[in-house]
């Protein structure tokens, strides 16, 4: 009887361990787990938008810090997905090390109609998303000691495609630099845009997005950007993923080109 009970307890413990591992490791479960960061509401005319904010410790009154706005690609509507959380954490780690302020605006539901029920940045609601980022940037500049000439828009995947359109079509852009990773395409062009510094990164094995990004690169090279000056292209060995090496190179590029 004792042996049977002991074996039963072992089976229950093993099942519990497997369920726990599945819960922790399965990305699907993260949509039900509240994110530990405080989500800040931001009122826009058409809706309440939101963002997360990470600042370096002990900002002094005489500092004037860079602001980076990081746009994740497609994401869950309620809680950020596991992939989003991992990318947020990678970027947030830069705040103290490099003395930068980082905002993580959340995309608008319905912006990518091919996949209903997700947040994204384009193709739908492009103007609304553009207005949100401009208003958020202006608001943060009033609240925090931000250097206007060191505001960078970072976009990954769908966020990168959005940022790529903004840089080529928005002469009134509030951004002093753009960081496009894993997504970009030259959909349209306004000759009045400024040729601000661009950091372009993508995976060698990103079979779907790499051709689009390379077309974008060739287009901007033909319209005022120069590799080694206001453009740096960085290829990493991943597929469609946010690379640690790209983070290092991107921060280095902007620290040298926005001074």
Task: Tell me the CATH superfamily of the largest domain.
Answer: Alpha/Beta hydrolase fold, catalytic domain
Assign a percent range to the helix content: 25-40%
Topology, number of strands = 11
User: Distance N terminus to C terminus?
Assistant: 76 Å
Count of structural domains = 2
Beta-strand content estimate: 15-25%
Average of per-residue pLDDT values: 90
Q: How would a crystallographer describe the biggest sheet?
A: 8 strands, mixed
- The computed structural class is alpha/beta
Write the element-wise H/E pattern from the N-terminal end onward. HEEEEHHEEEHEHEEHEH
Q: CATH top level of the largest domain?
A: Alpha Beta
What is the number of helical segments per DSSP (H or I, 4+ residues)?
Answer: 7
Examine the coordinates and then state which fold CATH places here, giving the name of the CATH topology of the largest domain. Answer: Rossmann fold
What is the global morphology? globular
Strand order in space, largest sheet: 1-2-5-3-8-9-10-11
Instruction: Please mark out the parts with pLDDT under 50 across 5 or more consecutive residues, or reply none.
Output: none
Work out the radius of gyration: 21 Å
User: How does CATH name the architecture of the largest domain?
Assistant: 3-Layer(aba) Sandwich
Features:
single chain, alpha/beta, Rossmann fold, three-stranded antiparallel sheet, 37% helix, globular
Task: Walk me through the topology.
Blueprint: H1 2-25, E1 40-43, E2 48-54, E3 65-71, E4 75-76, H2 82-92, H3 94-98, E5 101-105, E6 108-109, E7 118-120, H4 126-143, E8 146-156, H5 158-169, E9 177-181, E10 198-203, H6 209-221, E11 231-236, H7 244-257
Parallel strand pairs: 3-5, 3-8, 8-9, 9-10, 10-11
Antiparallel strand pairs: 1-2, 2-5, 4-7, 6-7
């Amino acid at each position: 009887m004792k042996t049977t009970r002991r074996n039963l307890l072992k089976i229950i413990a093993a099942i519990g361990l497997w369920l726990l591992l599945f819960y922790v490791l399965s990305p699907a479960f993260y949509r039900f787990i509240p994110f530990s960061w405080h989500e800040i509401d931001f009122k826009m005319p058409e809706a309440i938008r939101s963002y997360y904010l990470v600042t370096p410790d002990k900002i002094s009154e005489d500092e004037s810090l860079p602001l980076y706005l990081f746009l994740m690609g497609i994401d869950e509507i309620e809680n950020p997905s596991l992939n989003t959380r991992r990318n947020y954490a990678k970027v947030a780690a830069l705040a103290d090390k490099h003395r930068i302020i980082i905002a993580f605006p959340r995309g608008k539901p319905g912006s990518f109609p091919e996949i209903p029920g997700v947040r994204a940045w384009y193709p739908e609601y492009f103007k609304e998303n553009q207005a949100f980022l401009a208003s958020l940037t202006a608001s943060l500049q009033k609240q925090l000691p931000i250097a206007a000439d060191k505001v960078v828009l970072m976009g990954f995947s769908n966020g990168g495609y959005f940022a790529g359109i903004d840089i080529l079509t928005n002469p009134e852009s509030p951004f002093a630099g753009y960081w496009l990773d894993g997504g970009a395409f030259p959909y349209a062009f306004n000759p009045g845009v400024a040729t601000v510094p661009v950091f372009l990164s993508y995976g060698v094995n990103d079979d779907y997005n790499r051709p689009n990004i390379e077309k974008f690169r060739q287009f901007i090279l033909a319209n005022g950007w120069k590799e080694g000056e206001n453009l740096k292209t960085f290829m990493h060995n991943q597929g469609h993923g946010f690379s640690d090496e790209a983070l290092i190179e991107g921060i280095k590029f902007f620290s040298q080109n926005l001074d």
